[in-house]
Specification:
Length: 288
């Protein structure tokens, strides 16, 4: 048995039923006409690309859609909107060129600029005040916030304890805003940071708790991912999603796809081809 099969943590036993229950529920984004929507990458890095791609599914011409990402360190040249929310202020890079002077935020400054100042950046300090940051975000007047995480760290616990990484910290802040929140996990396992068994447990827990709202295929946004990640390493999450779609990833004897990163989880092919949507259980206004 390969290391990836061992890392499944018993998911072969429950995986087929879980996979079937997840993919059998289609999700369609609500009508956002005339609304103010924030599509925020939860984990930094390439989540801004995924957030931008997801925003293209919302008919942005009919709504005020802002997309962005989360950073814990330098955000490059920005214009502050609140003490911890900013929009990029670097020159628009030439097509195919990496933005200059943006440091670790080069990917954030490289995605297309939106009509409402996107991309925005939420600055999450290591000792941030969650309530204060939630108040700042709420003050911006969004009708709906869509938190996007590629890989699934935002839902995974390890030995029953939350990992409390950036994804989970940001999601907790969003829930404190009392703005309606949709939580989108794109291609569970694609970041290679969680064992398959832990992802199975997390997905099953949310499904059984009634927090699952359905899934949508990634096929419509693959061209966006391909265009925006063209200069990135094949180990970055959008490139792994694309490699899976192109049939370029190894498979186990049981048909699982092996993610070539981190702990190399072996996951069902459908996981890397879909995004799974949850409505977190927390006091919040409904979106209608």
């Amino acid at each position: 048995m390969s290391r990836s099969d061992k890392d499944s943590g018993g998911c072969h036993v429950i995986g087929d039923e879980l996979e079937s229950r997840l993919v059998s529920v289609p999700f369609t984004f609500p009508d956002v006409t005339g609304r103010h929507i924030f599509v925020l990458g939860l984990g930094g890095g390439c989540d801004v690309i995924t957030a931008y791609a997801a925003s293209r599914l919302l008919s942005p011409g009919a709504a005020r859609v802002v997309y962005g990402n989360t950073k814990t360190d330098s955000a490059g040249p920005v214009e502050r909107l609140t003490p911890h929310v900013a929009r990029v202020a670097s020159p628009v890079p030439e097509p195919g060129h990496k933005p200059k002077g943006c440091g670790s935020a080069a990917i954030d400054h490289g995605v297309p600029r939106g009509a409402h100042g996107s991309p925005w950046i939420v600055l999450l300090g290591r000792d941030h005040d969650a309530d204060a940051l939630a108040t700042e975000i709420a003050s911006l007047g969004f009708d709906l916030i869509i938190g996007v995480d590629a890989g699934g760290d935002s839902i995974v616990t390890k030995r029953g304890r939350p990992r409390r990484g950036r994804d989970q910290r940001v999601l907790a802040v969003l829930l404190r805003t009392r703005v309606p929140v949709l939580h989108v996990v794109v291609a569970p396992g694609c970041d290679g940071e969680s064992r398959t068994g832990d992802l199975c447990d997390a997905l099953a827990a949310r499904l059984n708790a009634g927090a699952y709202r359905g899934c949508f295929p990634l096929a419509p946004i693959l061209p966006v991912l391909r265009e925006q990640s063209s200069g990135l390493s094949e180990a970055r999450t959008p490139r792994i999603v694309l490699a899976a779609a192109d049939g370029r990833l190894d498979r186990t004897a049981t048909g699982r796809v092996v993610v070539p990163r981190g702990c190399r989880p072996a996951v069902p092919p459908s996981w890397l081809a879909h995004a799974f949507v949850f409505e977190p259980a927390a006091p919040q206004r409904s979106f209608s």
